[in-house]
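Late entry, written up from scratch paper. The run itself happened at the end of the previous shift, but nothing got recorded in the book at the time, so transcribing now.
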Amino acid sequence: MRKITKKLLAAGLTLGMSLSLLTGCGSSDNTSSGSDSQTGSNSKVYSIGIIQAMEHSALDASYEGFVAALADNGYVEGENITLDLQNAQGDTSNLSTISDRFVSNEVDLVLAIATPAAQAIAGKTTDIPIVATAVTSYEGAGLVASEEEPGGNLTGTSDMNPVAAQIDLLCDMFPEAETIGVIYNSSEANSVIQVNIAKEQIAAKGLNCEEATVTNTNDVQQAMQSLVEKCDAIYIPTDNTLASAMPTVRGVTAESKTPVMCGTSTMVDDGGLVSMGIDYYDLGYKTGLMAVKILGGQNPGETAVEYADSSDEIMINGEVASEIGYEIPDKYQDAVIDSAKSE
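Output as recorded:
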């Protein structure tokens, strides 16, 4: 499915890219002379700075998809682009330092991965084109005037999840649950938006909601231990702090036998029980296609924010199901992602 998606998305851009690559954007002096089949005898080497908020599977997949989209459309590292990947490791001061570096180097384009990264670089430049990904709400994060007409120098792709549908699925799998817990980093704007939707859906079902917040990964174990004592099941949005701490989450819930619905499938890979959501590789790929247009001369301020392709694909970690003593119903057997499916 992923390969088909990439081919369909890329097909309409490949020809246009080869015609527009010469026009370019940005102010970098990082040029080279020479010839290649894409750009002719005086091709420019475009510099792309990549600022990633922290390291975890979903954000890593976004980066991989972005690079693949560029390569599929003729932008290849070492030939006509240079990629400077910098990971802030969840440190706000690192985000600021990396942003300053990209501005000082006058890169031609910046990819910002996750809301904190986008906010950091957006606060440093109004000139360098920025594409962002893994941002839930661009307006909510103060990044654009509107998602239809961003204005300024930034646009990108949203990772808004089907939160209400995820809560519905959790309740269907655990119909006896009376209290649902939510845990998130309250300083992440994307998480706050998703949690508010989740709480509304939980209330609409007549269930109780318990809330826990963290400020960094060091808080996760204690917060989880407190939460599992009060809840029958837990919902975790696409929160960067929690996503990087899923092994800790798994350690607590394996002992308490508490099911966890995650905002993204990569968090299921890392220790959650179940998810129904977007593919971050595909989201990054979509972002790469936007970057192709912008490198070809399109104004990011006139480029509407795009959303992940909707998905109702369910993923269940069979090993985690075994750990918490959950017998997966027959109707969900096709969603199991590991060897526990056949046990």
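Residues 1-42, 339-343 have pLDDT under 50 and may be disordered.
(Scratch paper discarded after transcription.)
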